[in-house]
Amino acid sequence: MCELELTCEGDADLDFNLFTRADGSGGLRLHYDSAAKRCTLDRSGMDRRFNQSVGEVLDMPLDAPLKKLRVFVDRCSAEIFANDGEATFTTHVYPTGREFNYTMSGGELKIWELNPSVTDEFVV
Fold first, then answer.
1. Are 5 and 82 in contact (CB under 8 A)?
2. Predicted pLDDT at 97
3. Are strands 77-82 and 14-20 parallel, antiparallel or unpaired?
4. Given this model, what pLDDT does residue 6 score?
5. Considering Cα of 105, then 59, then 50, then 110, what sign does the dihedral take?
6. Distance of alpha carbon 78 from alpha carbon 54, whole angstroms
7. Which of 94, 76, 75, 72 is nearest to 85 (CA)?
8. What is the pTM of this model?
9. 49 burial class (0-12, 13-18, 19+ CB within 10 angstroms)?
10. Residue 38 to residues 25, 51, 78: CA-CA distances in angstroms?
11. Residue 60 and residue 81: Cα distance in Å, rounded?
12. Nearest C-alpha neighbor of 111 from the set 121, 101, 119, 120
């Protein structure tokens, strides 16, 4: 589990790929198009794909240029907050053992590892 903070460089495009393979391919792709002020989240590069008929690509239009993204990642989800919550994404992801890298261009990245708040297994 971790928290990521991505800061954009001026009015530039941003590409951030999470859960990539060692060679940088695949993964969960987040692209920001500065001209259109639109974030696109694409999970079609993940090894474990699901709900393909519902859609694996989500678009998030922004009112203002992207300055910051905060991403919270746990075992099976990624929550993304653009510009301090102006717009949000939540998506399920199920990375395999080989999907553990990331790539980024067009910004700066800070990463914090988070500890679980509950250590017991939930039993019904």
1. no
2. 93
3. unpaired
4. 95
5. positive
6. 18
7. 72
8. 0.86
9. exposed
10. 23, 23, 18
11. 11
12. 101
Give the chain's domains with CATH numbers: 2-113 (2.60.120.560)
Query: pLDDT 10s per residue in the chain (124 long)?
Result: 899 999 987 788 999 999 999 999 999 999 999 999 999 999 999 999 988 888 899 999 999 999 999 999 988 899 999 999 999 989 999 999 999 999 999 889 999 999 877 777 766 6
Beta bridge partners of 7: 68, 108
- SS3 per-residue string spanning the chain: CEEEEEEECCCCCEEEEEEECCCCCCEEEEEEECCCCEEEEEEEECCCCCCCCCCCEEEEECCCCCCEEEEEECCCEEEEEEHHHCEEEEEECCCCCCCCEEEEECEEEEEEECCCCCCCCCCC
